[in-house]
Specification:
The complex is a heterodimer of chains A (295) and B (280). By secondary structure, chain A is an all-alpha fold. Chain A folds into 2 domains: 178 residues, no CATH class; 99 residues, no CATH class. Chain A contains 10 helices and 1 strand, in the order H-H-E-H-H-H-H-H-H-H-H. The relative contact order of chain A is 0.11. Chain B has a domain of 187 residues: Cytochrome Bc1 Complex, Chain C. Classes of the chains: A mainly alpha (295), B mainly alpha (280). At the A-B interface, helix 2, strand 1, helix 3, helix 4 and helix 6 of A face helix 3, strand 1, helix 4, helix 5 and helix 6 of B. Strand 1 of chain A pairs antiparallel with strand 1 of chain B, so a sheet runs across the interface.
């Protein structure tokens, strides 16, 4: 318990506790309005379309909101000092070394993927994927009011990405990762000397008993082929679904380009939880090993 | 006793009337002056026209439309997160400028300046704490703003482009917070930034440990991470680079994106709602 308190009361971790509570609250609050609108048939927002004057009806809300935020910020700043540790010393690496809290989700992904995926490709795809959302979501319903029924796939996918993958990995990285980036329960004491045996196996070794490297330490082309083929099948799932449902209205409206982007982004996102399970449950490190990069 | 009290009341009312008369007269006189009229363009009687002028005659308020749908004034709909994010940006700009008076971005001074700021500068701790907590709060509110915009489907036509601008602002918020993280120059900051920038080693093609990096001639002293850090590890040149990025480059870019973001909110029909408004 002592350690839990130590982690929570670290000044820089207060925002994460705040984030966690706020995200839970607003997810509940937003979805509650969505479900209420769905039950009513006509969204509440649509009953309030009469015009009011911005002065005073909006400006007063903004003013009170600003006052509230400034009061909160003032109290927070008076009561809690920002951290200032020992002077920078490049020769003394703290264990664990953690990125700023909002990047801890990405740091956590490093356990499951090599840095070129976790640190570069995934962030880039998140930014590009977010930008692409308005152009690939052609559902015209649910514009300007809370709803779940009218856009189930969109809402579920976004909530999964934001709450399950982004926020909960930040929480995992903050509260459950200790020295050596080993898993610790939040109330457990951080033992710097804990040694965790890593029995890494690669995907092909585990499922097909095909070794990644041959006796002379060169890469096994058979393993490479199986690994590449597996990744191909994973993204092929999107193609298969396309062929299976090609007659449906939604797929026809999307067209191959939009559908291709959606299925690529969706399958890439879903590859992360799959890899997390493979890594933690079965100790699988790589699906594909090549001389240039590993997946 | 009673009579006396009444007489006193009357006297007081009279003198108040008299005072009011003088104040009224003075007010009218002032309001007729050229100086007053050049600053305030309309009076404050509660009329529809004045409420409208209150918005359009004020440079800060004229971002708003004159009239707005009732649902858009509900915080249950907007959560107020976009506005709070902007307010926090302003708070951060003001406290940040004050901090700049006391902070020198050189490795031999930076940490001592922080200590000085926290111990000897009047209101120094308040300014620094507010800058740090405001930055954390802004990262949270900007994410919640995006969450709300998604849940209400507000990125749908005609607001597709503005969503993209918002994604850029989200990224800039992360970058601003990240570059600022290094400036205290303590153990927490250099190691957090070391962990963060180590990722750049693995950039495909442009990092010396990334896929096809070595094939393209990338070394530790010429790849994209070297450009970012100004060296092979987080050191004094990195401090200066991050300082310039944090205090000048990124806020400027963010301000430009914000101008576009707010302007597009208006041009795309104001705060989203169930039916696209026909008049703006």
């Amino acid at each position: 318990m002592e350690n839990l308190f130590k982690i929570i009361s670290k000044p820089d971790n207060i925002p994460i506790v705040g984030l966690l509570l706020l995200v839970i609250f607003y997810a509940w609050y937003g979805l509650r309005q969505a479900i209420r609108n769905d039950k009513q048939g006509r969204p509440t927002e649509a009953t309030l379309t009469d015009k009011v004057q911005v002065w005073p009806y909006l400006v007063r809300v903004e003013f009170l909101g600003a006052l509230f935020v400034m009061v909160v910020m003032t109290f927070w700043s008076f009561l809690l000092d920002a951290p200032l540790e020992e002077p920078a010393n490049p020769a003394l690496t703290p264990n664990p070394s953690k990125a700023p809290w909002y990047f801890l989700g990405l740091q956590e992904i490093l356990v499951y993927f090599d840095p070129w995926i976790a640190g570069v490709t995934i962030p880039t795809l998140i930014i590009l994927g977010l930008c692409a959302i308005p152009y690939i979501d052609i559902n015209t319903k649910g514009n300007g009011y809370y709803t779940f029924k009218e856009r189930r796939f969109a809402v579920l996918t976004f909530c999964f990405g934001f709450i399950v993958l982004w926020v909960s990995l930040i929480v995992l990285g903050t509260f459950f990762r200790g020295p050596g980036w080993n898993l610790f329960m939040p109330w457990e004491k951080w033992d710097t000397h804990r040694v965790v045996a890593l029995t890494n196996v690669d995907f092909t070794e585990f499922f097909f008993s095909v070794p990644t490297r041959l006796v002379d330490d060169s890469l096994n082309p058979v393993a490479m082929f199986i690994g590449a083929f597996t990744i191909l099948i994973w993204f092929g799932l999107g193609v298969a679904y396309y062929i299976w449902k090609r007659k449906s209205d939604i797929i026809r409206q999307l067209g191959p380009l939009r559908y291709g982007i959606i299925s690529f982004l969706f399958l890439t996102m879903m590859a992360l939880p799959v890899k997390i399970v493979l890594r933690i449950a079965l100790n699988i490190k790589y699906i594909l090993v090549t001389p240039w990069f590993n997946v | 006793m009673r009579i006396g009290a009444e007489a006193g009341d009357v006297l007081q009312t009279r003198s108040e009337d008299c005072m009011l008369g003088i104040v009224e007269q003075l007010k009218e006189k002032i309001q007729r002056t050229e100086v007053y009229k050049s600053i305030f363009r309309h009076n404050y009687q509660d009329t529809q026209r004045n409420r409208a002028l209150q918005i359009v005659d004020n440079v800060f308020l004229h971002l708003h439309p004159i009239r707005i749908s009732r649902h858009a004034t509900n915080i249950s709909y907007t959560w107020g997160m976009g506005g709070i994010t902007f307010l926090l940006f302003i708070i951060l700009t003001i406290t940040g400028v004050i901090l700049m008076f006391y902070y020198r971005p050189a490795a031999e001074y930076a940490y001592d300046d922080m200590k000085y700021l926290m111990n000897d500068v009047a209101f120094g701790p308040l300014m620094r704490n507010m800058h740090r907590w405001g930055a954390h709060a802004m990262v949270i509110t900007v994410m919640l703003h995006m969450f709300r915009v998604f849940l209400t489907g507000s990125y749908k036509p005609p607001r597709q482009f503005n969503w993209g601008v918002g994604v850029m602002l989200l990224t800039l918020t992360f970058l601003l917070s990240f570059t600022g993280y290094l400036l205290p120059w303590d153990q927490l900051s250099i190691w957090a930034v070391t962990v963060g920038t180590n990722m750049a080693r693995a950039t495909p093609l442009l990092g010396h440990e990334g896929p096809f990096g070595t094939e393209l001639g990338m070394r530790i002293d010429n790849d994209v991470r070297f450009v970012l850090l100004g060296g092979t590890q987080v050191g004094p040149p990195t401090l200066l680079r991050f300082y310039v990025l944090h205090c000048i480059f990124l806020p400027l870019i963010a301000a430009i994106f914000m101008v576009v973001h707010f302007w597009r909110v208006r041009k795309d029909g104001g705060i989203s709602g169930p039916e696209p408004p026909k008049d703006i």
